[in-house]
Write a structure and sequence with these properties.
Layout: H1 5-21, H2 28-35, H3 39-51, E1 55-57, E2 63-65, H4 67-73, H5 78-97, E3 100-107, E4 110-117, H6 139-146, H7 168-181, E5 184-187, E6 194-202, E7 208-217, H8 218-221, H9 225-242
Antiparallel strand pairs: 1-2, 3-4, 3-7, 5-6, 6-7
Length: 253
Amino acid sequence: MPASGTQAIDRAAELLSLVVLADDPPYFGELVSDTGLAKSTASRLLQALERHRLVLRDGDGGYEAGPLFALYASRHEPATEMVRVARPVLQAVSEATGETVNLAMVRHRTVVQVAQIDSTFLLGTTNWVDVEVPAHLSALGKVFYAEGVIPIPAEQMERRTPKSITDPSEFRRCLERIRTAGYAEALGELEIGLDAIAAPVRDRAGHVVAALGISGPSDRLGLQLPQLVLLLKSHALELSHILGQPMRKDGAA
């Protein structure tokens, strides 16, 4: 006999509670066993919860609280939930490139790197989390400047290398190119021999809430920069979709 609407809601709520309250992401078989539901019923309800972004599956097939919870929690402590939701995307970028991968957010007009996956190479393993870096010399920081998340400096800015952009007018022209291209780069501006690229991560409303970046030695990144840019933009878009950014239709401007 098919379940009534109320029964279906109760069963879905039970599954959701088990996922949210679990210490470790439960697998499908565990959820079926704990609830006593038929596999077909549990599968159908979990698919519905996934469609509504209430649960998601991790890389091992376990179920976790979905990005809808992150969107709610972001009004209180955005970094913690953002890092959790973004972790699989950071991992995918790391596996594809082997380079250092970072996620940055803005706190009180300051760009803060909140998560990192280290490079697999010996050269390029600096941990940038919570390290204060001049935002105008950082690809991650330039993303936030370009999108108006933090104000553009009105006065001459700090120089670290001969490649550093310090003039506000030149910096504004750089930001225009970033908005057009959809990504930022900092090539030897913070340190000679250190290159970085970054792309914006947007929420459902289209606001930039984070920046996803790759950094490493110029000798490695420079040879494959076009390919890395395409890969990074793709994964930043993937994370944006997880956060609710609508998929663009073919031919959309």
